[in-house]
Amino acid sequence: MNSLSKRLLIAAAGLFLTTILLGFAVVAGWTQAVDLRISTDLVLHVGHSDPAFIGFMQAASWIGGGTPRWIIVIVLCWLVWHWCGPRCAIALGAASLLANLASSLLKLGFGVTRPDVIPHLDHQTSFSYPSGHATSAAVVYLLLAWLVPPRWRRTAWSLAGAMILLNGVSRIMLGVHWASDVIGGTLLGAGFALFGAWWARRGRALRES
User: Fold this and answer.
1) Looking at the 3D structure of the chain, how many domains does it have?
2) How many angstroms separate the CA atoms of 129 and 203, rounded?
3) Are 127 and 141 in contact (CB under 8 A)?
């Protein structure tokens, strides 16, 4: 295993550990004051009275979750297959599935309740930490940026940053997640993105050896 592969695995493990530690901090109440301040400032003071803005947030959240999310993953896997082969496509699909599963299990494990700053503007039935939308956005778009052809990489990284930010802000604005949920989900998704990048790179290394 070369040095880059080791760094990818170590970084992924570090992000997974940080996600878990942040979850314990959330359960202990250490993030409560900051979470409440951020939610209050965003939800009550930034565009919440504008129906068009809230509609945009709901649309962004809809795209990042449920059926639309998996349609996007399938399409991206097909594109990645053509760009760098089946192993890359499997890496993207598997990382997305595993990240979603890990998010669901962590939600059950930590049992953090949803915010109650405003009535929820999106239907939710699960616990809060970590955000599944933030997890998915991070794993899908960060790994995509790693796997695209070099000439498109700058655009892909810009897309990743925009989608992660938009998904995270929309979940807070709709009153269904705390900022700590979004941060935890982003860390978790980024960890799986690095793990997927390691697995895809390992396949290339094996072919070249």
Assistant:
1) 1
2) 33
3) no
pLDDT tens digits along 3-52? 778 899 999 999 999 999 999 999 999 999 999 999 888 877 665 667 88
User: Residue 135's domain spans which residues?
Assistant: 3-208
Residue type, 89: A
**Rounded-to-10 torsion of CA 96, 100, 106, 107:** 150
Confidence bin at 208 (pLDDT 50/70/90):
very low
* Three-state SS sequence of the chain: CCHHHHHHHHHHHHHHHHHHHHHHHHHHCCCHHHHHHHHHHHHHHCCCCCHHHHHHHHHHHHHCCHHHHHHHHHHHHHHHHHHHCHHHHHHHHHHHHHHHHHHHHHHHHHCCCCCCCCCCCCCCCCCCCCCHHHHHHHHHHHHHHHHCCHHHHHHHHHHHHHHHHHHHHHHHHCCCCCHHHHHHHHHHHHHHHHHHHHHHHHHHHHHHC
**Per-residue pLDDT at 97 exceeds 90:** yes
Q: What is the pTM of this model?
A: 0.92
